[in-house]
Amino acid sequence: MNTKTLRYWLVKGIGSTLDQGFFALSNFFVNLLLARWMTSQEYGEFVVAYTGLLLVGCIHSALLIEPILIFGNGRYQNDLSAYLRALLKCHWILTASVSALLAIAGISCWYLGNEALALWLILLSLISPMVFFQWIMRRICYVNLEAYYAGYAGKLYLVLALLGIVVAQETEWLSGVVALGILGGASLISGIWLNTRLKIGRTLEEETVSTNVVAHDHWDYGKWVLGTSFFSWGFGNIYFLILPLFYELEVVGAFKVLHILIVPMMHVITAVGRVLISAFVRARNKFEFDKIAWTALSSLVAGSLVYWLFLGQWNHEIINWMFRGKYDEYSDLFWIVGIVPVFFSCSVVFGAVHQALEQPDRQFLCYLQTGVFSLIFTLVLTAFWGILGATLGMVFSYGFVSLYLWRSYSRSSGSINEVTLNEV
């Protein structure tokens, strides 16, 4: 490996780790403080609303964010600036449309007498463009050697979010609505900072990349990712919407507490997955391709197993210290939920393979084949066993989809040759 290549992947890896690290810390500490300072009912409401935001975000991520690394490192590599400007135009058109639909739904709920739901929907219509803008700016940083900017933006977001939450608590203004508003504001500021640093602005020259062409290319690729994104969202978040159907919102907050402690490891895995996509796209032969895949997988699984053993061994002490004894009764469930990152590692690595080969349709079929049955199975488990059922359902879902993705990778392995890789 020459010096230039080593520098490329070193910068990529450090920038990706910093990015995911700071945002993982932000989510971790925000949820930790909210769970400690809010009542279980209030925290449950916040969790449900934020889960809804992530559900809406599936559309934005699938159609705009996920294809960036594929097209930015491949098809539009020689016209990158023009491509990114066209992409941001698509972003504002999509987010404006989504916000309008959420606002209309909120106003409709208000007239129907459901004022609480109307308030959350209207708030989401205002917050979602801010959050999604930050998301897309962070992913743009990964296209070239500027991933470290995403790390700096993560640091800014961490400071702003925590400062806002602490100030709201000290002034006795803290609530789910205020907390969501703080996260939206922090997202907007960090996104604007990234935009100024990356200098993706207007140009006096005639654009070499058409917005319509970019939109068409992203749709052709993203329409398959869209289905995958919804199923992927379901595997990690559907429980927060199912639990309120059968139990009080306090139970939702308790399940989120379990989820909080596996999220940092999942952020690390996601960071590695983003770097892997670029690595796979640039691989020159099948041997190099397979080596990258299995090295990454073995490393991530080993790290996840160590993390699982740590959570299981010290479960009671951790949850008692972090949440002041509010959720001690659920601490033993860490032995179950802690295994999720192991299966998540498999799904990220083999998912990155399909994305790099521009095979989102195969990835979608894997999620489709497992998703419907998994979600139905999870619904039944959750209805009868509550948090235990939701925990088992999460483990089952990730395990099942990782198995199918591995099978799909094994079957297509023979078609990964030098010509295919160079074309991608």
Could you provide a short overview of the structure?
The chain contains 17 helices and no strands. The chain has 424 residues and is mainly alpha-helical.
Question: Runs with pLDDT <50, length 5+?
Answer: 418-424
Mean pLDDT metric: 82
Q: What is the strand content?
A: under 5%
Give the end-to-end Cα distance, rounded to a whole number of Å.
Answer: 22 Å
Specify Rg, calculated over alpha carbons: 21 Å
**What is the element string, with H for helices and E for strands?**
HHHHHHHHHHHHHHHHH
* Count of separate structural domains: 2
Q: What is the 3D shape?
A: globular
In helices, the fraction of residues equals over 70%
Number of helices: 17
Largest sheet: none
Query: How many β-strand stretches?
Result: 0
Structural class: mainly alpha
